[in-house]
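[audit] Reproducing an earlier prediction to check determinism. Same input, same settings, fresh worker. If the tokens differ from the archived copy the diff job will pick it up downstream; this log only records the rerun itself.
[audit] input (422 residues):
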Amino acid sequence: MSFRKRTGLGIGLLLVVAASLFAQTPPSETQDWPQFLGPRRNGISTETGLIESWPADGLPVKWRVEGGVGMSGVAIRGGRALTMVQRAGQQWLVALNSDTGQQLWQTPISSEYKNPMGDGPRATPTIASNTAYVYSGEGILAAVNVADGKLLWSHDVVADLKGKPADYGMASSPLVAGEQVIVQVGAPGAALAAYHATTGKPLWTAGDDPAGYSSPTLLTVAGKPQIVAFTGASAIGVAPQTGAVLWRYPYVTDFDCNIATPIADGGRVFLSAGENHGSVLLALAPQGEKFITQEVWKSQGIKSVFRNEWQTSILLDGHLYGLDNVGSAGPVTHLVCLNAATGAEVWREPRFGKSNLIAADGKLFFSTMKGEVIVVRATPKGFEKLGGKAYLESTRQAPSLASGKLFLRDDREIVCLDARRL
């Protein structure tokens, strides 16, 4: 397998070209959730008309179907809901009718994946146009036709690049940027790898860090579109067209457990990790063709105000809402609201519990390790819980939201709830 590191064009010119090729478009008017963390990969939906008060019997269940083992979330586009499951000795990409739950097709991606921290695939599918991109637990990247489930191409990325799967499995949800699909690999000279989205042709590799468990994202930082990835040892910014590393900020945690996706805050980058690590907000300053990182604020170590273990925080109106996991393995989890610009705590709901979240219509929607759905108003004025109810067994994945419906899954079932205002 042959990759190129860069072309003869200057990075400055390439970034200008990339600004038009890779600029993020507004969320679809069809109110889809086509990838991990939604349309903009920040956990936020633009949908409105969602519940304002908790129904007496909880959110209505529209459908509930058998699923399979795994931690993959649900991606929704064009009336189809896709997720990765493990059953019958295989890792499958499964497509359901998003209105009824009827299975439309299933495509085997790889043999079963086993891990002491939980079996099955970890990464959420990404749907772009009529193609779904998936990444298996051991690191097989594949493209599948959404209409009929036909396998278009597949690469054993980790093996091909002479790497080894991350200790807890490959969890990087594929990022589609222009005509490229990018994942974390963690192989020598290939912290990230990019492939042509249509042909599967290898395009470039970037960085030398081990794999983290975060998913790369396309952010505009310091006025430039960049692929920002939280690897097992650092955060890096990469030129989308070439893979040239523009900046690197070391961020070493126990067990390479950088899991949350980086967030852009007014052209700055927010990072957070558990394992008693903490958080930092970075500003980038141009230095020739690259950038230097400057710490706007940081709160790190055992006294940190904010340690996101495996949950990406939500940035709304200048405030960060997220989970502070206290202790080496997060035995106690608080829900916290921070002033994003300063890192100052605004409010804290002690012992809220391990959970994951998204935001829409002024609310935070949580799925908890106990299988509950909890809705909290997203306001810096204080903690306001609208209600909650258990719908599943234990789950780590955040809900997905499309056309007023919440989609969740555990190791047994996939469920769709009606979250529209009554």
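[audit] rerun output stored. Observation attached for the diff report: Residues 1-29 have pLDDT under 50 and may be disordered.
[audit] end
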